Amino acid sequence: MTSTVVPHATPHATWMERGIALHAQGQLEQALSAFENARALAPSDPNTSVASATLLVALSRPQAAYRLLLTLEKELMASAEGATNLGIAAEACGDLTKAEAAYRQALTLDPTHVRALTNAALLAGAQSRWVEAVAAAEQAVALAPDEPGYRHNLSDLLAAAGHYRESLDVLELACLRFPDHLDISMRRIAALAFCGRLEDSAALEAKLTDGEREYFLAFLKRAAASADPDKRLLPAPDISTDAFQLYTDQAFSALITCDWRESAQLAATLRRMLADCMENHTPRDFREAQFFGTVLGLREDELAQMREVSTRAIAARQQTALPTFSATRKPYRGKDQRIQIGLAVPGLADSRTVSALQRQLQLHDRNRFAFHVYSSTRRPNLQHKDTLAPLAASLVETAHMTHAEAAARMRLDQLDVFVDMAFNSPWCRPEVLALRVAPVQIRQLTWHRHHPAQPCDYNLSDTFIHPDGLDLNPFGPVVRLPHTCWLDTRLEGHESRAVSRVAAGLPDDAFVLCSVISPATLDPSTFSLWMDILRALPHAVLWLPGFGAAASHLCREAEAVGMSPHRIRCSASADNLEMSADLRLADLFLDPIRFNANQGLVDALRLGVPAITCAGKSMASRLGGSIIRAAGLPDCVCENEATYLEAAIRLGQDSGHLKSLRTRLQAAIPTAPLFNLPARVRELEAAWTIMIERSRAGLPPAAFDVPPD
């Protein structure tokens, strides 16, 4: 009998087979060990390195995987599959330049490589290159029509680009082809809401099983995860599966880039939501709606109702083991007889924020007041902490704390007054206020004149925002400062720059109207008024900050009313501070109607640039008037939009009047209350003192005026 000799498998192949089997069984560490043994036996075999890299990624060690693949870069870049794998590893490690080059190489070698197309699309989307991203995703769908994942990738990119109806079209077709695919079904419910088809979205959601609803909630949480690292660090708010909330969230995102096409429906939807809350006592968190409601032109009473509903909803969610707050009413604590002031501030990563806070603290009477600073900074800068440490009794980072933990830590300082200075920033935490950390809680600023009873005790205002003759009873405990409640803490002299109009992209012979604002605070009513001004002043241009994506939307709005988009000039810098430094080049500052420019307006006035504003009925629309009056130009505060329009046109046509106004402003600056920060700080201290004296006497919060100086 002749025997057959069976060749033995090589040790390298044996280890590879063992690694593959262990990987299939979920034993990742053992599989990695097997692949590493195979790689030691055959270091030139790229398959062993790729296998090891795959396991390293699965074991959350992407950097190690990327370093390993880089040793084979030449071999990997020789094939579309290898280049794609290298690109995925590079992207996971943040090396986007290498990732993009790898995907480009893969598609050069094989234009139909679907994985490379898909990853290139997602990378382009992450960088807001929407046209390129959508084109690549559409090609992937065409090449692999039976792969549902490529379809929902395409719908996600369309939605992220703001093309909600196109996204829904993709999902409607995908649902016909894959009726039982859960990811597509979940996205369809959200897409219907995004398109304003609220009843259709709600009807589909009502049909979900308990398991599907839980999956839907997890999907929404992933979709709502912020790209902002500071926001990611804060405790996530509750995610609602409500179709109304989904619609308003995406519509708010559009407003951030001055995309006002949904404005009318958005305002109507918010009113519908509010009516439901008032009639059925439906809990809802309107914190975003309160901000954007001012831009949409919601009435002051509607915004006040939203604030009441939000306050109740936030308070109801604070079910923690933290004991109910109880004020000690001690006139002083231990040997330190000073009034203890807690300041919740924006994150201290920005040196400008630190400088502003430092300037304010230097001016306070630290013999009478002790300051405890609470900051949610993602990556604290020790140098910034050293800058503030001599001025504060304590400086505590709260970014890593839950709301209850932050409140418990603040209570340890036995505060007399807690001041929320992080208002309308990623670091604002109303949940902490709801848990109460001091006998007196106030916000440094708000955008409403109406003030709910909780969680803040007083509404800090002034005699212009809440003028004499106004019945204050509906507005809650209002503290009126004598000049302005705006605190100008920006360092003087920082703005000195010698830049020509040509260098700033402005015509030398034009009448330059300007406004330094965030695109999120610009409203369609104001922009329409500005277009009327440009129409009446053919030699004028409108100079705005570097608005990025918002600029194209504004150009579309301008063309829709027959205005050349070339008459809108955007700063080359995306940093408003840099444009503020060049404001001397402007002739007239235009304050927006519904949401005033505030710090941008202050910067213009300090540089001697005249400004006009229109006083509305909310704090957001009256703060500009407060600022301009405190700068010494009360006649530049207009009573309505018609007089605002007339004033802008008159100043654009009468150079002598404009020059006289500029001269008067420059002469007033040395003595203007707006720029007398020490006096404004003294007024704040007087207000705090009255508040805490009432609290210690057992008296409830009540409106009062702070006397001048």
Report on the structure:
With 709 residues, this protein is α/β, with parallel strands linked by helices. The protein folds into four domains: 22-224, Tetratricopeptide repeat domain (Serine Threonine Protein Phosphatase 5, Tetratricopeptide repeat); 229-317, no CATH class; 339-481, Rossmann fold (3-Layer(aba) Sandwich), CATH 3.40.50; 511-675, Glycogen Phosphorylase B (Rossmann fold, 3-Layer(aba) Sandwich). The protein has 31 helices and 14 strands. The protein has an eight-stranded parallel beta sheet, with helices on one face. A six-stranded parallel beta sheet has the order 10-9-8-11-12-13, with helices on both faces. Helix 24 (524-536) runs parallel beside helix 29. It is globular and about 95 Å long. The model is unreliable at 1-8 and 229-234 (pLDDT under 50).
* Secondary-structure class: alpha/beta
Tell me the overall shape: globular
Report helical residue fraction.
40-55%
The CATH architecture classification of the largest domain is: Alpha Horseshoe
How confident overall, as mean pLDDT? 89
List keywords for this structure.
single chain, 709 residues, alpha/beta, Rossmann fold, eight-stranded parallel beta sheet, globular
Protein topology:
Elements: H1 11-24, H2 28-41, H3 46-58, H4 62-70, H5 73-76, H6 80-92, H7 96-109, H8 114-126, H9 130-143, H10 148-160, H11 164-177, H12 182-194, H13 198-206, H14 210-224, H15 229-233, H16 243-256, H17 263-280, H18 287-296, H19 300-317, E1 339-345, H20 351-363, E2 369-375, H21 382-388, E3 394-397, H22 403-411, E4 417-420, H23 430-435, E5 440-443, E6 458-462, E7 478-481, E8 511-514, H24 524-536, E9 540-544, H25 549-560, E10 568-570, H26 576-581, E11 588-590, H27 599-606, E12 611-614, H28 619-630, E13 637-638, H29 641-653, H30 655-668, H31 677-696, E14 704-705
Parallel strand pairs: 1-2, 1-4, 2-3, 4-5, 5-6, 6-7, 7-14, 8-9, 8-11, 9-10, 11-12, 12-13
Helix pairs in contact: 1-2, 2-3, 3-4, 4-6, 6-7, 6-8, 7-8, 8-9, 8-10, 9-10, 10-11, 10-12, 11-12, 12-13, 12-16, 16-17, 17-19, 18-19, 24-29
